[in-house]
Amino acid sequence: MILYYSPGACSLVPHIALEEAGADYEGTRVVLASGEHLTSGYRAINPHARVPALDIGGQVITENVAILNYIAHHWHAPGSVPLSDPRAAARCNQLLGWFASSVHIGFAQVWRAERFSDDDSVHPAIQAGGHDGLKRYFAEIEALCGEGWAVPGHFTAADSYLLTFFRWGRRIGNDMGAYPRWQALVARILARPAVQAALAEEGLTSDDFKAKE
Fold this sequence. Notes:
There is one protein chain. The protein is α+β, with helices and mostly antiparallel strands. It folds into 2 domains: about 1-75, Glutaredoxin (3-Layer(aba) Sandwich), CATH 3.40.30; about 85-190, Glutathione S-transferase Yfyf (Class Pi), Chain A, domain 2 (Up-down Bundle). Helix content is about 50%, strand content about 10%. It has 8 helices and 4 strands, in the order E-H-E-H-E-E-H-H-H-H-H-H. Helix 1 crosses helix 8.
């Protein structure tokens, strides 16, 4: 089994899930910043040129929600989707859907405005819209962060997504210290050995998830 990932990308979410599961897998870097996802070799793996992709013996699964549910069904471990609790599983998948369809898109507007229009003149407006949207999403995320996990009673992929978004928020210039509940959740996530193992393989450290530079 091979997980194709880019350091610090949303592929960190299934990376953590595989570590939590104790799965026997190989991690293969596809560095987005270097354009490795655009090569013909990687497009043969995922024609959409995105990470993550999970090769399970010749069959390739793409899209985080599909990969995470596969991991959940196969290992029934923390860090993916809590299938033993149908309500919790629904809540987790609800959050994963929102993260992928809304929060992640806000970041894409900021970083990759060209995906939304070939007209360079409108890119600043697209980026501004992304920043505005993320402010609203961040307020909603702060409200859903309590003393435990995003899905009460379960460490899930939703938490790993929030870890990833926290770092991204800092990278686009936000003062993430303005979100103390979210910051506390990040600290709880970083305390997990499987999370540290995934970060180490990706060349990341806990310092990358501090509220400020």
